[in-house]
Amino acid sequence: MVQLDDLIVVETVTPDGTRVSFYGIVDIVRKKFEGNQFDTDAFRVAAGTLPVEVSYAAHVQVTRVDPEIFVPPAPGDAVAVVRGEAFRRALYFDQMEHTVPIGLTRAGESIFANLEFLDGTRGAHASISGVSGVATKTSYATFLIYSLFHSGALGIDAANAKALIFNVKGEDLLWLDKANVRLRPEDQTEYEALGLPSGPFQSVSFFAPARRGSSTPVPDTGSRQNGVNPYVWTIREFARNRFLRFAFAGAHDVRAQFHFVITRVERELERASREGDETEAAITLSGTRICSFDDLVELFDTPALDAMMAGAPVAGGTLDAFRRRLHAAAEHMGHLVSGDSSARGKQIDWSGQQVTVVDIHTLHSTAQMFVVGVLLKRMMEQKEQQGGAKPLVFVVLDELNKYAPREGWSPIRDVLLDIAERGRSLGVSLLGAQQTASEVERRIVANAAIKVVGRLDAAEADRGEYGFLTTVGRKRAAMLQPGSMIVSQPEIPMAILLRFPFPCWATRKSEVAATVDAHDPFERMG
């Protein structure tokens, strides 16, 4: 019996005696009565009054011809479903020097990706799209990180390679270092089939935003406090590193004057940060001591801002817009910038552990974009200073359409676009997830070597960004169940449907406890 997604092989012999093998994937199967003329003849066939034959036919999308002699197979040539080594040949796995497991077929065969298209050797980045809550995008991105670090694919580079994961929804990713008690024996078998251990991440650090109004920085988390570090930036760090632009990340204001004001103010802040006692968290700007983000906002409400713009052709309306938006930003992210000495050394440090999870789910959208922009900017600057691709850094960011929108301006989009276009040479690989790839900056999606879709909205599946899917593939993407993905990679001419194992690390506090019931499959995928 041949079914959808089976890989098959047909061998034929050319007139000169050369044996040619055709490998392919079954993408359409159908049955029909041969011998009937009308649709209603099916009733006569069922009653036994009309003799017909049932034909069972499959359409095959060719993936490989070996050797590359492009002649058709002969009618009557035998067809076989491939397994084992033949399966590897069908999908070019035998030609991949460095592979990383990325999932399983329905028949249990392991699917691999060429590591060279993730680590920057020949390409980098992955784009994961799908409906929120159903497509399991974040789960699959986390599985890819787990596979990269625990499969041995990175070799000696694994010891120094890092992953930076932004936790944007709930507290799912704050338990990566705990084993999942819901893992069943059959789940463990799937990990064994992929050559992976089944357990939690071995080297993880967690960071959460400092709680608003607290006298000393403490992490603002709910179900987990132990082992989570608070993060906050000092006023001096904010000024010296020119982070002001990321406070306006959600403004989408494309007026050149507005950009000029931000740049001019950043320059004044940087100059002030280099004066006075370097060990102090606060700074002095225009003769005023700045001990909090609110102090900065209040200063710019005075003529001090106009003085900074002296001689520049900036309209008063532009300065008023700057002030209004700075007030709005202060309400949402001002508590992340402090002039208190207790804030020193509370930055996010991703150099200590192999995987760093940065929690931003409790923050307002403006604060989320500030944190993401600041960290990615700092990461790219550090990589440029190192001057090489090693050690590798993998960045996992969900809701990419918010941070790198196709329309409008955003400083974060500029940073993400820089990662997409230059990250490969610097050893930075972006694993971006989004509900709709059609709303993400085109060049970011286009630079992703690995493209993945989970459950897609039917209208979204028809967009040009999913051109790697066949017509049948687009229809199937609208029906995928949680845990199933369609993956396209450069060396395989057709996207492959696969499933990935249930997480062997806890995704919520209840999965750390020993009393959890693991019988409900829908609850397990929650």
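(ticket continues) Second input and output from the same batch:
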Amino acid sequence: MTNLQIWTYSVVGFTFLLYIGIALRAKASTTGEFYVAGKGVHPVANGMATAADWMSAASFISMAGLIAFNGYDASVYLMGWTGGYVLLAMLLAPYLRKFGKFTVPEFIGERFYSKTARIVAVICLIVASITYVIGQMKGIGVAFSRFLEIDFTSGVIVGMAIVFIYAVLGGMKGITYTQIAQYVVLIFAYTIPAIFISLQLTGNPLPQLGLGSTLHDGAHMLDKLNQVLVDIGFAQYTAQKGTTLNLFLLTLSLMIGTAGLPHVIVRFFTVPKVRDARSSTGWALVFIAILYTTAPAVGAMAIYNFIKTVQPGEISGNTAEANLKYDDRPAWFKNWETTGLLKFEDKNGDGRIEYYNDKNEKYAATAASRGWKGNEMVKVDRDIMVLANPEIAKLPNWVIALVIAGGLAAALSTAAGLLLAISTAISHDLLKGIFAPQINEKQELLAARIAMAGAIVVAGLLGIHPPGFAAQVVALAFGLAASSLFPALMMGIFNKRINNAAAVTGMLVGLGFTLIYIFVYKGWFFIPGTNNLPNDATHWVMGIQPESIGAVGALLNFITAMIVSRITPPPPEHIQHLVEDIRVPRGAGGASGH
């Protein structure tokens, strides 16, 4: 066993024992503890747990990978996901906490005085949450495949088993305190390597400042990166590549999707008071900001180090020996080849690694003059970049082991929160709330655990063949939440005129439209007379990618609900008073001014 393996098994093993120990110690014995941790979590602790719950594999593993390869365009993930928390703090969290129910479907069912609305909300929740969990399973598979040096599929299966142990047993009470530990692990695992690499490349210990600093050769970091990428046929790192409309809609979709995510919203039911819900959101933003302000530097430095490895001459300026001999590839390259997430194909038979953009027509002549017959790095999974970066930079083995533990912490923490939201929707909203109200607390708890186990199996199997990189899959989930649940929650709180028919119709239209667009442009629907539409900008409607379409679905949801509410009877008077009561702070005077 190598020194790295010893470090990895030690660090990851210790963190797993910690998580499982906390889950067993805080095992839920009542439905209140299973669903909302008995409503006794301190706002600071809840903010930290919320940050871990929300900063998933997409944030830790995938986002910087997308930034590395997409540059400027991937900044929308930073803006959309953090901006959504402002919406959540201002527009939803305090009001939903004041309403005082366990789940989002329960709020929608009572606000719209309809079992049908509650069932539709459960469907929307399950579709969005399962999609989200698929992204986590992809991240778990990437981390476990590298950690155990096995193929990606086996990594996902091992991850499913670990999630099952601590998520099914602990419920929200166990998950909350486990997520606090996971936040500490993931934030150290993300920032420590970033500090090392920033010092290594720029001499600046703060990655946020290192991104705007000069390299040791005197060149500005971003200027150098732009130059090198153009030299091998790619667009400038800091250039906008997608359409402004698509970037705007993707940012909006991620923002309102954040505010509509059930597994995040339910965290604000775990604090003692309404005021604590808003406070929790503020603390969560502080804890999230530490990682999110570091991510741009991690992405830029990761792609710089990657090119420096496979195309060293492009970095040094010696283009005569620009590329690396495959037989001389470093250990990190061989390690990631084992997982199947990094693949090389020697297209011109020269034994060297040719990494350049073979789809760039302007670069074709240069490529031909060098004898290149296509990009020979036929697979560089974006989700490996954060985990591989410390290895590429030749950091100490304990740092590499810490990063793997952090990636697993991020993926497992969010997967647990999502699975809890799914199990709660099935056991509390469908069984106890509608189909079997006579079941006792023990039976409801058993049903929740069975539902969670089933969700783990479904998400794991789908995670083996995900519809994109982890962050892209998560963006699809945000779009589904944005198009279905967010409008219903907003109108339920701020519009007395929206009735049950309007809410149900709006959710179905928003979810249906978004799902159809995603399925068509991800190639999962066969369209007669076509060979299926490829998932690229030349075929998207108005250049809108599937990850961005949730914002359009939300707009259709709002419009549909408004129209239906105008042609159907208004809600009963007691429901309209309920809406007013949700928005008026306790202790405030009524309409008479008392």
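Agent notes: The beta strands are 342-343, 379-380. Confidence is low (pLDDT under 50) at residues 525-532, 586-594. Closing as not reproducible unless the customer responds.
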